[in-house]
Amino acid sequence: MLVYIIAKIATGGGTFIEMIYDVIQVPLQGLTGSLYGAIGIAFFISFLWWFGVHGQSVVNGVVTALLLSNLDANKALLAADKLSVSQGAHIVTQQFLDSFLILSGSGITFGVVVAMLFAAKSKQYKALGKVAAFPAIFNVNEPVVFGFPIVMNPVMFLPFVLVPVLAALIVYMAIAVGFYAAIRRCDFALEYTGYHFWLYGRWLARGSHSNCHSSYVCLCLFPICEVSG
Fold first, then answer.
1. Rounded Cα distance, 55 and 47, in Å
2. Which residues 6+ apart lie within 8 Å of 212 measured at CB?
3. What is the pLDDT, as a whole number, of residue 229?
4. What's the rounded Cα separation, in Å, for the pair 123 and 208?
5. What pTM was estimated for this model as a whole?
């Protein structure tokens, strides 16, 4: 009865579910859709993985429902032909996460694979690069995370954590200022299930901008792999 009364007062005559939505989901949805939310998601996925914890599973358990809510809001704007950042469209959706923050797996490790194939002097790393290349196409990077290894490797901590954070910052700002017009092309208002195939995700993210994103990651990780051998 007390909960019912509090809900009625807090929502101006609404229900307890509406109170939860107004008090908890709306603020969290706003946070996840912000630049800070994008950076936080990118950071904690890689940070947890460095300790051997499946960061994506942990973070997804918290943010997936919120990101899908952002997607639904974008769909409504798309239906009204108002899908743009200036009209309140959300930049950070599940598609943003899948296309840019976990490209080739948590930590965006395809740069490590490329570096092992073309820059590593160690025969062991070159062999690992060959083994890890095909799984990376499908966002499977456990061969790199545990074989390089990245887990509990102090040399790889900063690049593994900061590369996705910088990717989130760069892509978010590029979309916000209109340099990357993905949101105008409806990329973040459509659901798709092919993100496990990262080349497909890159195609959905539209070619040249995603190529810049991929090149940046490789450039960041090449020197680290040189140091590691």
1. 7
2. none
3. 53
4. 33
5. 0.77
